[in-house]
User: Fold this.
Amino acid sequence: MFAAGQREMQQMDQFTIDKIGLPGIVLMENAGARVVEEILASTPCEHPKVLVLAGGGNNGGDGFVIARRLYDSGLEPLLCLLVNPERLKGDARLQFEVYQNRGLPIFFLQENTKAAFQKELARADIIVDAILGTGVSGPVRPPFDLVISLVNEHKGKKLVIAVDIPSGVSSDTGKVVGKAIEADKTVTFVFPKKGFFLQDGPRYVGEWKVVDISVPPSLVTDLGLDLPTVITEKLGQEAVPVRPQQGHKGTFGHVLVVGGSRHFVGAPIFAAKSALNSGAGLVTLAVPETIYPMAAAQNPESLFLPLPEVDGHFAEAGLNELLPRLHQFDSIAVGPGMGRFPHGEDWLKTFMSSLTTQSVVIDADALYLLCDELELVRRYKGNIIFTPHPGEMARLLNCTVREVEADRLGIAKSFAIENSLFLLLKGHRSVIATPNGAVYINPFGHDALGKGGSGDVLTGLIASFLAQGAVPVNALIAASYLHARAGEEKAKALSHYGVTPFDIMDGVREQLNLIG
Ligand SMILES: NC(=O)C1=CN([C@@H]2O[C@H](COP(=O)(O)OP(=O)(O)OC[C@H]3O[C@@H](n4cnc5c(N)ncnc54)[C@H](O)[C@@H]3O)[C@@H](O)[C@H]2O)[C@@H](O)CC1
Ligand SMILES: [K+]
Assistant:
């Protein structure tokens, strides 16, 4: 499944109408019919009062179909037209005339009907938002802004269903510049919109469902559209490396985790445990020697490489022990808990220069220490995976977090291409980008994952799947998907507040158990 923006939706709709020959009015009829099915399937009571709010574009046109079809389903909805009917054009005008020809009731919102409108709003059980769709531009103008505020006042008390996208949310960027509908559910056509996953979008879209309106999804390929893929349960599960039953620990790969410092003891332990819990055959943990006893006590399943240290951080002398062994490992994760230290850049530079072709996950402070060494990264013969959160991404690009958040898809894609690496840009709705420009959005996960150590678990998962033979993009998809789903499921039992890194690891095992 892909995520689309305004222009791509227009291209696909237009191709279906002009080249395939299905009239726009048929698409609109399909769209309305599908939304009605979803309304009837999610109704909170037996004879709900439905208020359909329609704007002046094609999203409003869908609203006319919805109101008419709700009547035919035995309900008594009220259609509320928010614009002067003279302004209606094209298919929306046609559908409005059909509605009128049926003699069905219409409430016209005008200056002198605002009080009556508020009463209708208060009476409704379900509010259908067909005010603005993908055609919105700029802040929502009067009277829509007022209507949207009034609808949002009923948040939690009425079921608000948005048609295609909550009115006021940009389908390209998720940005809300003025007012926008806070939907409980969004019934969207053909593909989810990019804006569901970006910036303000996730706060407004609620639960979303894609419905078919006879615009073929295969048009993405036919029209050569460059769209991000939305990770589904199927894609996430299929990306997990298959495990041969006759396999032994050698089959499942050897992960090296390099990290830890006096102040950050847990991070490398979480990464190593996570790698083992998700199927790696062997895990070696290279840590500064003072934290070795604790790491070993916490994690007896791992092998250890205690290394010399200075002031609680890796010392240069340790490289002599570490570097000759690097060829033994199938994947390497470097950075968790490593901290920042005066000779850190040089330490990591020497480390990186000694690698040949192993897949390397660069996380946490290793990202910080490598900021000025991207040339080294670009030249590397093996696969490199960066896993920055928005703050780390901003530092890598020498820009602000706000700038990163304003264009997560574009920034992830260009950074991955320019530096020939795989990127997992963390945050709500993680984005994965590959060196050849493919982009994936993870629609799963929520605040339960927002806790120190959660990222280390993710890093361990990525390294684990790489060691088990997954190609980097699959390792990232599988790890990101399982991590997010584990957080969601664990939060149901333990609350959004209570999920710890160990719970996430446990949840990942439960998710792995669901794979057939
Ligand atoms: N043939 C098609 O293209 C189909 C379109 N469909 C629906 O049509 C929608 C897109 O329709 P449109 O392109 O007509 O766009 P919209 O219906 O989203 O909105 C366009 C209208 O809103 C006004 N508008 C734009 N920004 C505004 C703002 N900030 N404040 C107030 N008014 C504003 C414009 O003047 C215009 O009248 C989709 O989201 C979908 O719901 C579906 O019916 C399926 C078929
Ligand atoms: K809408």
